[in-house]
Design brief:
330 residues, alpha+beta, Immunoglobulin-like, Glutaredoxin, 2 domains, 7-stranded mixed β-sheet, 9 helices, 38% helix, globular
Length: 330
């Protein structure tokens, strides 16, 4: 759920470029790196900082729209438009909770920052509503109505509002799919897990039944998925902590067949641990379909008998995962 708005608005771009530039400054406490990267699919700008965590630059963006801002460890969504004079402050130790904007464009960007936190709450409410179709529908309707309030608020930039409006239908569709996925995940809990039999990076094939007698933590990912790659260092640390315990860490790539070699190269170059598998029909693989997976990364936890503990498990970066594993493996 985190930063879902970025995924939806990232494709949107206004059609009218302006002649001037964006003036951007930032003051970051406990910074994660000495540079900030502002990017979209077709644009990248690196902003260098000084020893005190101050960043400043002026640059032209191709068009008004939502861009990704990466600080070396985490990312935020920012709305940029040539002519903006925007200042950002943040404590990187509490990235989402402390990010604030002032200046031209502050209203749009503070909305995006607030929306990021709302996404976290929405995800929690989504999980809490498993098995209750009426509650899920209400949750989605409330989110759509909240977006419509901004769309109809003329105090926001017109291009920004048009972007929200253009993506509202797509967001509703995605949220509906996520609700359906969450509902399906809830129904699988405690039941025998759908199985798989996939190519193993080390040779041959591996099926779920090979892990009977151990817990299985499954990471469904792809080489092209940025959020998936961001979880890799955390997954490696979790694997290291539970090495020798009765748990197997399995990563299933749903890359398309044409990216098979890319998958093999990435697994080898990054020395990815655990059991590395390649799904037979990417998104359309039986295992993926059985779990209703329509977004990644997706994590699944299965018990030693092959029953589902959690069909939408916590991410490796979430401390709650280790708390859960500590209880199960004590």
């Amino acid at each position: 759920m985190k930063k879902i708005l970025l995924l939806l608005l990232f494709t949107y771009a206004g059609v009218f470029a302006q002649a001037d530039k964006v003036k951007f400054t930032a003051t970051i406490q406990n910074r994660n790196s000495d540079s900030l990267v502002v990017s979209s699919r077709t644009f990248t700008k690196v902003i260098k900082g000084d020893a005190k965590g101050k960043f400043a630059d002026a640059f032209a963006v191709p068009q008004p729209g939502v861009y990704q801002l990466f600080d070396g460890a985490e990312y935020a969504t920012v709305y940029l438009k040539n002519g903006y004079d925007l200042s950002m402050t943040m404590d990187a130790k509490q990235f989402d909770e402390t990010i604030k904007f002032k200046g031209t464009g502050e209203k749009e960007n503070n909305y995006l920052a607030k929306r990021t936190l709302q996404d976290e709450v929405f995800g929690e409410n989504l999980n809490a509503s498993l098995g209750n179709g009426d509650a899920l529908t209400k949750l989605i309707d409330e989110r759509v109505k909240n977006t419509e309030v901004v769309i109809n608020d003329a105090s926001y930039d017109e291009t920004f509002r048009n972007g929200l409006k253009a993506q509202l239908g797509q967001e509703k569709q995605q949220l509906t799919q996520m609700a359906q996925q969450a509902l399906a995940a809830g129904k699988l809990k405690g039941k025998p897990s759908p199985s798989f039999n996939y190519e193993n990076f080390k040779g041959g094939t591996t099926k779920l039944e090979d892990f009977k007698g151990k817990y299985v933590y499954i990471d469904v990912w792809a080489t092209w998925c940025g959020p998936c790659r961001q979880e890799i260092p955390y997954l490696q640390k979790v694997e290291e902590k539970y090495h020798g315990k009765d748990i197997v860490f399995t990563s299933i790539s749903i890359d398309t067949a044409k990216d098979h070699e890319k998958w093999k190269k990435m697994v080898g170059d990054k020395t990815l641990g655990g059991v590395q598998l390649f799904a037979d029909k990417d998104w359309k693989s039986d295992f993926t379909q059985a779990y209703g997976i329509n977004s990644i990364p997706r994590f699944i936890l299965i018990d030693p008998k092959g029953n589902v503990v959690d069909a939408d498990a916590k991410r490796p970066s979430d401390p709650a995962l280790q708390e859960q594993l500590d209880k199960l493996l004590k």
